[in-house]
Amino acid sequence: MQETTGTPPLDAETKVTERPGDHESELRFWLRLLTCATLIEGEIRRRLRHEFEVTLPRFDLMAQLDKSPGGMTLGELSQRMMVSNGNVTGLTERLVALGLLDRRQSPSDRRAQLVSLTPEGRRAFRAMARAHEGWIAEFFADLTPADIEALMRLLAKTKASARRAIAAETPR
Amino acid sequence: MQETTGTPPLDAETKVTERPGDHESELRFWLRLLTCATLIEGEIRRRLRHEFEVTLPRFDLMAQLDKSPGGMTLGELSQRMMVSNGNVTGLTERLVALGLLDRRQSPSDRRAQLVSLTPEGRRAFRAMARAHEGWIAEFFADLTPADIEALMRLLAKTKASARRAIAAETPR
DNA sequence: GGGATTCATTTTAAGGTTCAAATTTATAGG
DNA sequence: CCTATAAATTTGAACCTTAAAATGAATCCC
Questions:
Q1: Of chain A residues 24-53, which have a CB less than 8 A from chain B?
Q2: Does residue A20 carry a pLDDT above 90?
Q3: A95-112 residue pLDDT tens
Q4: How confident is the model over B40-70, as pLDDT tens digits?
Q5: How close is the nearest chain B Cα to the Cα of A108, in Å?
Q6: Most buried of the four, A80, A164, B49, B168, by CB within 10 Å?
Q7: Three-class secondary structure of residue B35 per DSSP
Q8: Residue B34: CB partners within 8 Å, gap ≥ 6?
Q9: Are A74 and A115 in contact (CB under 8 A)?
Q10: Using CB atoms within 10 A of its CB, is residue B1 exposed (0-12), middle (13-18) or buried (19+)?
């Protein structure tokens, strides 16, 4: 269950003789990154459900709106949440039905809709956000400020690298 | 707010005076970690679909089986994939229907089923895995070996911290 | 103005995901 | 044995998610 990298005598320091097609360290890095994200995301999902009876996607959507008091269009939402348009349509419908979201036509563009939190939605979100912030602090309690600083820098580099690779493959 | 059975009474100098809202750096770290994972996962999903006509969850399941030639039980699979039992049941059904998976009763436990890749499934997975490894290398091409080493170490620490926090909350 | 194009959104079909309840089998105690 | 408990899996309901096609509106360009 516990993967202990005990430095096998195989590749101790022979990076020069790298065979083509050996990207084992990158692969292991990716799996570790994914495991961290999945582990934490699952626990956040569980706690949101049990303590607030809300799903994680709904919380995420409300979090975007909370940062944007003037409201956002559905397209903006889907872009920031990194999910599909149809996804946001459905989530929005359910949250409007619950009275947590307001939805109105954009005055300048009749194709677009502006969505924003209702007062009740904002109140509900703020309570959840407070708890959420505490959970995150718990999860990362063993990391020093220097650890977090280093991770922020390295993940920024990681993100930039991935974005470049993806943009190169998919030129829009 | 949270009632935990067996908590010792609060004493006068616990962190009651800690300012709420100063967990901003942890929160930003979490969002950045999640963004990296979501970005890369989405692109992998897209490429698997376009180049191999397979979904990411199916690829993930086959990847687990590829590492375990003797086969695995559904429970083992769900634990390693960090998804629910019912989820694995459905995924397995579809992959068996496609002829990529074999499913047989465990000889020692009639409750359990052993699942493994068929020869065709293994062949298909290997081709996908080769491409997948190349994609990952692309995504992380701008990271130096030292970057990856540092990230591996820091993410191991992150994972351990989160696991500790989650185990503390959910002794089960 | 009018046709082509692009853009914001919705719709539809298929699949993925969770949770909780139900089912079936194993194991432990008496 | 027999009952209680635990374990492995399945089922059902609700929801999330995507991709692709469709709809309706803005914009561009002559």
A1: 25-30, 32-43
A2: no
A3: 999 999 999 998 889 999
A4: 999 999 999 999 999 999 999 999 999 998 8
A5: 31
A6: A80
A7: helix
A8: A37, A41
A9: yes
A10: exposed
SS3 category, A114: strand
Could you tell me the sign of the dihedral formed by the alpha carbons of A45, A49, A52, A54, in that order? positive
Q: Distance, angstroms, CA B6 to C1' C30?
A: 33
State whether the beta carbon of B60 lies below 7 angstroms from any atom of strand D: no
Strand D closer than 7 Å to the CB of A79? no
Q: Is the pLDDT of residue B11 over 60?
A: no
Which residue gives the smallest C-alpha to C1' distance to D7? B111
* pLDDT tens-digit readout, B143-159: 999 999 999 999 999 99
Cβ atoms A82, A60 nearer than 8 A = no
Pair type for strands A113-117 and B101-105: unpaired
List the beta bridge partners of residue A101.
A117
Q: Which of A95, A104, A39, A36 is nearest to A64 (CA)?
A: A95
8 Å CB contact between A101 and A115: yes
Contact (CB<8Å) A33/B151: yes
What's the CA gap between B119 and B124, in Å, rounded?
9
Segment B79-94 shows an average pLDDT of 95
Look up residue B154 and give its two tokens. Answer: 């820091």
Q: Which fold has domain B52-138?
A: Arc Repressor Mutant, subunit A (1.10.10)
A25-141 is a CATH 2.40.30.20 domain: no
Asked if A12 has any chain B CB less than 8 Å from its own CB, the reply is: no
Mean residue pLDDT of chain A comes to 88
- Rounded to whole angstroms, how far apart are CA atoms B11 and B155? 34
What is the SS3 assignment for B38?
helix
Decide: residue B37, CB within 10 A, 0-12 exposed, 13-18 middle, 19+ buried: buried
As a rounded value in angstroms, the CA-to-C1' distance for B114 and D11 is 20
Q: Which nucleotide is nearest to B93 (CA to C1')?
A: D10
pLDDT tens digits, one per residue of A51-87: 999 999 999 999 999 999 889 999 999 999 999 999 9
